[in-house]
Amino acid sequence: MDGQGLAYTAADLERKIDLIVLKFTQALLKDMKAVPMECHDSGELSLFHWHVNIYQLNRRKHIVFINDLSRLCILIDGIRSGQVTRLQEKFLLTLRTYMVSEGIGEAVMDAYLREGSEIMISKTNSRSVLGTMKEATYFTEDDFEDDLSRLQWMNRLFYKPIDYRNPIVVFKEAITLHYEGKRTDVR
Known about the structure:
Layout: H1 10-15, E1 20-24, H2 26-32, E2 49-57, E3 60-67, E4 73-77, H3 84-101, H4 106-115, E5 119-123, H5 127-136, H6 147-157, H7 167-179
Parallel strand pairs: 1-2, 1-5
Antiparallel strand pairs: 2-3, 3-4
Helix pairs in contact: 3-4
């Protein structure tokens, strides 16, 4: 539903396995005036789960998203306090634009966004992902002229724990593997 306190029943969660879950930090929950829902995940890292926080970059408020499975980083700006719906829309648009720029086919992105068409807001639950988020937000100033260049640089700068692979490589492999049997036009 919309992350504003509406609850999902167990049947809803079973039916909608690939719900996108945005796991807000306490600071972001307060800033967005959002009420988190309980996320009863199995503890497995998911392609559809993202940790989210506020981040100051170039003296502007940004929202940073880190994918739980791949540690892929997405940054958005232009979101004001209480604009949860706008945050969700801009995240999906930025994710689509970035994935296409990285060579992931439109069909795969359409399938990912269609399966994860509903978004649930929850609380953070992984210290490992939060550690990667801290690493991704280490820089407070940069001189990138466009957001895509910044995202491409960030997702090649740090490595996913344990496997020591770049987040973009892990995300591409995971999303391709997820849709391998469902789509034949994966690049």
